[in-house]
Amino acid sequence: MTALAPPTTAHGAVAEVRLHTRRRSLLATAAATGGLLAAFAIAMLVGDYALEPWAVVRALFGDGSRIDVFVVNQVRLPRAAMAVLCGLALGIAGALFQTLLRNPLASPDLLGVSGGASVAAVWTTLILGLSGAAVAASAFVGGMLVAAVLLLAARRLADGGYRLVLAGVGIAFLCSAVIGYLIKRAQVTQAQSALVWITGSIGATPWTDVVVVAAVLLLVAPAVWAATRLLPIVELGDPLASGLGVRPVAVRIGVVVVAVLLAAASTAFIGPVGFVALCAPPIARALLGRGASGIAVSGVFGAVILLVSDLIAQYAIPGVAVPVGVVTGLVGAPYLLWLLATSKGHRW
């Protein structure tokens, strides 16, 4: 007969694994949070109008000169806050898609969500001649319409999610073709403004936009927390998950809705910034260890990536500000090629 390990030994091994996992989680969270705070501090200090740290602190509390208060509270702070919130939304959305589909290539920009939002925004700009809040609202609606198609595919996610991935890729190509046609028939000035938007740019950000994105994040926070607890159970298989009282189909559909909502809210205000949702989750998983989804940590790393990319877009070339989507594309495209070359795409 094979001797069984004493209960005390088994409990000790489990406790050691849990302690190691907790330590890695704390280290990953600390690294992501530290990087985010450092990038945020730099965003407050650097610029054409230089400010000392003490001047920034005073301006945050409404003290100091009028120009200091305006630059900090009306220019730099809302732009940095928008980068953090949208990066957080994209990082979480990417982690939800990749965990659900067990596919490192799953992200809103590759699944067509960002493409749907872009089509709606470009249509509003070029055909209807509207701008501002109307463009943001139409982009949001376009992203949610893509969600309806993805949800139809999500009914058969038990096959590993290939149906959802293929549907998303097809939608992305279709949206790209529609955008190309709309820009081709538009006037030069209109086409130029549309191209800037679909590249992805933060630019001047009013506080009202920041509040809307923050409200969306707060609204879906309970659902994200539930997803972090339920997705590992769903990954055990539908029969076992059902036996534990979890409805796998409902969980999958809920995750798709939350991920699309986050991606659409971000795209509505800063455009379809690519590769943030694709790159943030693998960084989080690498720090957390094999098997961890790291949804919350992925969101923090998404915020770091987008905020740092926006700083590079603003100040890398003296006197020239480029759209943040250009920077994320320069970083994300090589990563995507590397991922395609070193993995089969459907393995976790």
From TrEMBL:
Q: What membrane topology was assigned to this protein in its record?
A: Multi-pass membrane protein
- Keyword tags: Cell membrane, Membrane, Transmembrane, Transmembrane helix, Transport
Q: Does the keyword Transmembrane apply?
A: yes
Source superkingdom:
Bacteria
Q: Where in the cell is it found?
A: Cell membrane
Q: Which Gene3D superfamilies match?
A: ABC transporter involved in vitamin B12 uptake, BtuC (1.10.3470.10)
Task: Enumerate the transmembrane spans.
Answer: 26-46, 80-101, 110-128, 134-152, 164-183, 249-275, 287-308, 320-341
Q: Which family does it belong to?
A: Belongs to the binding-protein-dependent transport system permease family. FecCD subfamily.
What is the protein's major site of localization?
A: membrane
Protein name, UniProt field: Iron chelate uptake ABC transporter family permease subunit
